[in-house]
Amino acid sequence: MAGPPVPRVAVGGFAHETNTFHPSPTALAAFQRPPAVWVEREELLEAFSNTRSVIGGFLDVAREQSWTVIPTFFADHPPTTGTLTAEAFDAIRARLVSSIGDARPDAALLFLHGACVADGVDDPEAVVLAELRAALGPAVPIVVVHDLHANIGLGWLEHATAIVGYKTAPHTDFYERGREGATLLGRILRREVRPVMAARKPPILIKAGLMSMTDAPLALIKPTMFWVMQRAHEIERDPRILNVTVAAGFGDADTPVAGLTTLVTADGDRALAEDRAAELAELAWRLRRGLLTDLVLTPVDTAVQRALHTPGTVILADQGNNTAGGSPGDGTAILSALKDAGWPDAALFIRDEDAVDAAWKTGVGCEIEVAVGGKHEPSNGDPVLIRGEVRLLTEGVARGVTGTPAQLGRTAVVRCGASGGPVGQTDLVLTQYPTSQTDPHYFRVVGIEPRERKIVVVQSAHLFRAAFEVRERIPSAIVEVDTPGITSPNASRFTYHRVRRPIFPLDDFEWQQ
Fold first, then answer.
1. What is the DSSP letter of 26?
2. Helix or strand (DSSP H, E) at 70
3. What is the pTM of this model?
4. Separation between Cα atoms, residue 152 and residue 257, nearest integer Å
5. Measuring CA to CA, which residue among 18, 13, 9 is closest to residue 249?
6. Alpha-carbon span 134 to 138, nearest angstrom
């Protein structure tokens, strides 16, 4: 007797974390050159098979459950994420929707980052989901996995069958959430469960540096998301609950859907889902003042001096220059402070194509004097004149957090010293492309061992903690530095035009559901 038909499952998606305060739009061409990802059909399998990514999790469950995988389309443009042009979004939407729709699958598994904004489109993911639902019809399951920073529009719930979000920040559960989404899809296909979703959006706007959920010491000073997620885990232990997602949102996007979302998926019990989503929203609101930056961020000069007088290796986390959140990666506040401190034992990255070109022309072993940084975004600071020895020239490729390669482009390491004085000990890594140093490998690939440095600067809000702090236990202390730039966690420094109002922390008010 023949068994049940093998499900044909389409796999695809797109990811763009849009910082609408970035002065430059993201054009279509940006997706089609390194370090972006633009893969179709079999290229998707080549890119993500055997990786600890969301799509890697999809593919592993599909293999275990003997599904026929239909690879479709995936696009991702990493750091420097200004608003998508209409041309870019139209191209991504058309490829994704047509490749899945034309395949006529039995189900679709999508990775949508969830914080995209395009020219004239506040919620691109909702648009894509609506078009996919129209193409596939009402009976075909669509399961979405998204980033913790997703700005979830309620339109998502109208068109997706189930929605699963990351549970960690720093993100250490890409693969696990991919597996969870695919496993849930399997249960849906076998008609074991009937998902119903409910969501609440309490008026809370969170910028990138305030989203941490970790058992590491950070939880002691920024507990809001940590405790909300702990309650979400407790709710998920109820067998009637299929998934609980708490999306912190992405406050660097000035859009009506920006902000925290609590989303609960129950097995056929909508009232239960509504009740638990409302409970989590109320908890987040009661804990909201833990998201203020007053006790979190340290002024730049104080941060450098604190690092110099703290035993062991100290990581300075450059909050305003977080490239994963949309900064161009050329902020100079910490570089300037290191120069003022006499170039102490330190290592840091700055994206500066012109300075890289100058270093390559100068050559290894030669002295260079060049103005560095502060060229892409006005609030990132002025260029800083450095003088030092070119120590290394390379075409840098680091390992990203999921094991996939991260392109640095042409790269130069300059050991900085005071003008007219001896060569100092601050190693400045100049890169062609913006990078977010979320893993020690970024430093090691250019000959710098973080364990051996006094100060290590990372252009990252919290993603670096998983590798530096938890996995390798490198720092004796971490200082989150209050630098200028478009990714500063302090929302009051920015002018919002499109977010819902009133919203905390921009407004002081009381809220009831």
1. B
2. strand 68-76
3. 0.86
4. 6
5. 18
6. 8
Q: Three-class SS of residue 103?
A: helix
What single letter denotes the amino acid at residue 339?
Answer: K
Instruction: Outline where DSSP puts E strands in 403-510.
Output: 405-417, 426-431, 455-458, 477-481
384-399: strand order across its sheet:
367-372, 384-399, 405-417, 426-431, 346-351, 455-458, 314-318, 477-481
Residue 300 CA to residue 339 CA, distance in Å, equals: 12
| Contact indicator for 501, 338 with CB cutoff of 8 Å | no
Distance between CA atoms of 37 and 77, rounded to whole angstroms? 6
What is the pLDDT at residue 420? 46
Strands 455-458 and 314-318: parallel
pLDDT greater than 90 at residue 25: yes
Task: Give the residue ranges of DSSP H helices in 287-393.
Answer: 300-308, 333-340, 353-362
Phi, psi of 109 (to 5 degrees): -115, 120
**Are the C-beta atoms of 219 and 470 separated by less than 8 Å?**
no
Summarize pLDDT for 371-429 with one digit per residue, the tens. 999 998 888 899 999 999 999 999 978 776 656 677 889 999 999 985 444 445 999 99
Beta strand 107-112 with 162-165 is unpaired
Burial class of residue 29 in the structure, from the number of CB atoms within 10 Å of its CB (0-12 exposed, 13-18 middle, 19+ buried): exposed
Q: Which of 15, 178, 181 is nearest to 96 (CA)?
A: 15
How far apart, in whole angstroms, are the C-alpha atoms of residue 315 and residue 457?
A: 6
For residue 191, how many other CB atoms are within 10 A of its CB?
7
Largest pairwise CA distance in the chain: 86
Rounded to an integer, what distance in angstroms lies between the CA atom of residue 391 and that of residue 430?
A: 11
**Both tokens of residue 504?**
């905390």
Element (H, E) at 196: strand 195-200
Element (H, E) at 198: strand 195-200
Compute the half-sphere exposure of residue 206: CA atoms within 13 Å on the CB side of its CA: 31
Q: What's the chain's average pLDDT?
A: 92
Angle 250-125-18 (CA atoms, 0-180°, nearest 5)?
A: 35
d(CA 44, CA 65): 19
**Alpha helices of 431-480 — where are they, by DSSP H?**
441-444, 465
C-alpha 187/C-alpha 363 separation (Å) is 60
**Which tokens in the block code for residue 353?**
């194509």
Contact 303, 479 (CB under 8 A): yes
**Which residue type occupies 354?**
D
Taking each helix axis from N to C terminus, what angle separates 86-103 and 124-136, rounded to the nearest 10 degrees? 30
